[in-house]
Amino acid sequence: MTAPLDVPESAIEAGPETVLEGTETSVIRGRSLGQIAWMRLKRDRIAMTGGIVILLLILVAVFAPLLVSWFGHPPGEWHREKLDPSIGAPLGAFGGISGDFLFGVEPDSGRDLFSRVLYGARISLLIAFFATLLCVVLGTVLGMIAGFFGGWVDTVISRLMDIFLAFPLLVFALALAGVIPDKAFGLSGDTLRISLLVFIIGFFNWPYIGRIIRGQTLSLREREFVDASRSLGARNHTILFKEILPNLLAPILVYSTLLIPSNILFEAALSFLGVGVRPPTPTWGGMLSDAVHNYQVAPNFMIFPGLAIFITVLAFNLLGDGLRDAFDPKAR
Amino acid sequence: MKTRSKASAVAVTAALAVVVSACGGGGGAKSTSGTGSDEKPASQYNAGVTQVVNPSEKTGGTLHMGMPGDFDSVDPGDQYYGYAWNFSRFYTRALTMFKPVPGEEGLQLVGDLAEDLGKPSDGGKTWTYKLRKGIKFEDGTPVTSKDVKYAVARSLDKDILPSGPTYFNDWLDLQGYTGPYKMKDKLDDFKAVETPDDYTVVFHLKKAYGGFDYFAMLPQTAPVPAAKDTGSKYKEHPVSTGPYMFKSHELTKRIELVKNPNWDPATDPNRKQLNDSVEVLLGQNEDDLDQRLLSGKIDVKINSTGVAANARKTVLTDPKVKQYADSAAIDRTWFTNINGDVKPFDNIHCRKAVMYAADRSAIQGAYGGPDAGGDVALSLMPSKMTGYQKIDPYGVEANPTGDLTKAKEELTACGQPNGFSTTISYRNERAAEKLTAESLQQSLGRIGIKLEIKGYPQGDYFKLYAGKPDFAKKNNLGLMVYGWGADYPEGFGFFQQIVDSRVIRDAGNTNLGVKDPKIDELIDQAAGETDAAKRNAIWAQVDKQVMDSAFILPYVWAHGLFYRPPTLKNAFVSQNWGMYEYLTLGTQ
């Protein structure tokens, strides 16, 4: 930061005593990295907007049934009276948008797009959050172990990451989702499909964060405080969890936030290809896939789920970028 | 007959659609009009369903055709799509053919390579055809009965030519003969087809079948010269006997046909040779292809259902465009099988409850509405088929959205007054089938029947899922969304594969669980009957019996919405193909 050019005269004229006086009255408190980051983040309007949008999205997803009961119709309910019977296209302008149907209706069935987009948020966010959680847990644990212990442990884990990164994930996901039975691991129906998607996305994306954590651990373990801790007789797991992990929280938080949007997109892609959650449960990707056949008939069918994905992904990316800047301004 | 679904073709290209559409034009599609004038003749919606639109005998120019995908094959021995059979008559001549005329007359068979229809003997077990004289291959070699025999023989080998129907494999008295690829130079062992002289072909069947002339119509009987046969590569250049022959075939990209100099119109009263050449662009982006069709840059779109959902809106809402469109009935019914193997559907009353409760008009919407999707089906047999008799045992005409009172009565009679839960399966790639499953979930939910919806990949739908009785039973697939088109517009070609319980195998079924000895008995009666009128009456009875046993819930008699650019000449919908008759088309 540069010094302000317009320094008030009083400040220049003020003697050293006055400054000292000031310090006596207010207690200087050390600020933690988290506090500093939060202050920086608060000043970053773009990131904050992203954060607020995410908060709203989560609220919308949680309270979707309530919102739909106020402003919409159940997501599975057909309203064929809202369609032109000869072509199945929505009646009225812009795909049948009205006070009753805020986003218009789906062609051929007349289902309420507003409620379907809202319910779609639940699936998208749910899968993205849990898949990211799985990625982060796996990536952090394995990355820390690799970076801290080095040697053959590092070699094995690093090669494992290479293998996972080289894996044709989309093809594998398509195949796995196609052959999965209806009941497995004590789960069935949508619960099983969602768990499966979480597993596929989470289990195969951990090396991205794993590599970052490994690199950070590599440099952290050479730092003085680690040496100090070790010379005081701390054991490995104490050093890992008490000394190194707290210092990794910043990158973990930043990369989780950046992973979520990519996982949302991946879930949408899988749903688009028809291996996501079963109908009639609406998902954004699934809606887009149906809309492809009708984009000239009812553009709203493509626009609203597309916008939903766009806004969600953008919001998470903005927040993630803001977080990264806040934690480490030099990394720009 | 298979119909390439809209969904499957689109699914592949969908992801690329947005990116590619700008440059998906491909080369070669130029304006078709030779006169250069801009005036477009007025026409009427559905005019092509009953009459020839823009009759013209002028010759010259190129007929531009375009396809969203590719043919299963252009080898006459290896085709099973209606449009492929329609197209292959440009360059092949089977023993018999459907008369290329509009209206019901188009359902009549006439001799093509043969002088006339077959002569049955031995109670319908032996069929004899006399070939026309003077027919030549494109290189000038005369066509003989041996070439027909060889063509039928090669079509038996499903390892080399997998796509065609299996009627000859199933019905001919083969005595162990497996085709000329596996049994080289042993054509004489193929006793099921005899050639007493160069112009006589005799077929011997295992059991009597009165409708053999329909088999003789299959492109599998079109002559193939043994010396030119290259097995699975024959499709690169099938040897022509028709008015056009292959000039080039860039596989999966483009086909160009030119006039066959050795085709003699004197031997062929049914075909015309108006165009100088015929060009087919393959693998086109469907929405883009529709746009080029509507703008007249393409003359004909080759597929079985006509314009896709996106273009439908323009066609049906703009009267200037709609006047050039035809909504053509297809020999196809969209239906759902009710699986008697899954409880409680072993009880006929529970099946009937579904028959009464289904909202057929919602499903009609799912398939695209009355013009593009089809009519609400009253029974299984498509109404335009030869021998159809109107029946409506479930009162669908009066209550297209379902009769809930009757449905509840049936549920009570079944001992499930509060409903039950079951599963419905559909083919992932087919958007309309998914919507159908969702619609049934809604309409059956009204009487307490709860459906769980499961999609399966269509490539394995019959081999591994719905068509595998073990799997269907284990996974509680009480309802299975399905659809069937006739191979030819006569009862046998429609019913046998989907309602005869004796064709049910361990896997790969086309009959998804219709088991009724009365139906089997009627099918045998009909097949053995050589009198066409009597035969057709029996097929109508089969239709009624299928409805009474309630194993199949039919809901839509399919239509395709086709568009003929104003410059297209001699266009009409063939009642047999359920699409434009390709043979007569011209552009001048």
Q: Give the assembly state of these chains.
A: heterodimer
Give the SSE string of chain A.
HHHHHHHHEEHHHHH
Query: Average pLDDT value of chain B?
Result: 89
Low-confidence sequence ranges of chain B = 4-37
Main beta sheet of chain B? 6 strands, mixed
Which chains share the greatest interface?
Answer: A-B, 29 and 42 residues
Class per helix and strand makeup of chain A:
mainly alpha
Strand content of chain A: under 5%
The amount of helix of chain A comes to 55-70%
> Major β-sheet of chain A, in short?
2 strands, antiparallel
Structural summary, described in words:
Chain A is an all-alpha fold and 332 residues long. In chain A, 69% of the residues lie in helices and 1% in strands. Chain A contains 13 helices and two strands. In chain A, helix 6 packs parallel to helix 9 (189-220) and helix 10 crosses helix 11 (236-272). Chain B has helices at residues 6-20, 47-50, 82-88, 145-155, 167-171, 212-217, 286-294, 309-317, 319-322, 348-357, 360-366, 369-372, 404-413, 431-445, 469-474, 491-499, 517-528, 532-549; strands spanning 62-66, 96-98, 109-111, 119-121, 126-130, 193-194, 200-204, 244-250, 254-259, 277-281, 300-301, 325-338, 374-376, 421-427, 450-456, 477-485, 552-563, 573-574, 579-580. Chain B is 27% helix and 17% strand.
Structure summary:
Chain A has 13 helices and two strands, in the order H-H-H-H-H-H-H-H-E-E-H-H-H-H-H. With 332 residues, chain A is mostly helical.
Which key terms come to mind for this protein?
heterodimer, A: 332 residues, mainly alpha, two-stranded antiparallel sheet, 2 strands, 69% helix, elongated, disordered N terminus, B: 588 residues, alpha+beta
Strand and helix map with partners:
The complex is a heterodimer of chains A (332) and B (588).
Chain A: H1 9-13, H2 16-25, H3 33-43, H4 45-62, H5 64-71, H6 113-149, H7 151-166, H8 169-179, E1 183-184, E2 187-188, H9 189-220, H10 224-231, H11 236-272, H12 284-291, H13 299-327
Antiparallel strand pairs in A: 1-2
Chain B: H1 6-20, H2 47-50, E1 62-66, H3 82-88, E2 96-98, E3 109-111, E4 119-121, E5 126-130, H4 145-155, H5 167-171, E6 193-194, E7 200-204, H6 212-217, E8 244-250, E9 254-259, E10 277-281, H7 286-294, E11 300-301, H8 309-317, H9 319-322, E12 325-338, H10 348-357, H11 360-366, H12 369-372, E13 374-376, H13 404-413, E14 421-427, H14 431-445, E15 450-456, H15 469-474, E16 477-485, H16 491-499, H17 517-528, H18 532-549, E17 552-563, E18 573-574, E19 579-580
Parallel strand pairs in B: 1-10, 1-11, 14-15, 14-16
Antiparallel strand pairs in B: 2-3, 4-5, 5-7, 6-7, 8-9, 9-10, 12-16, 12-17, 13-17, 18-19
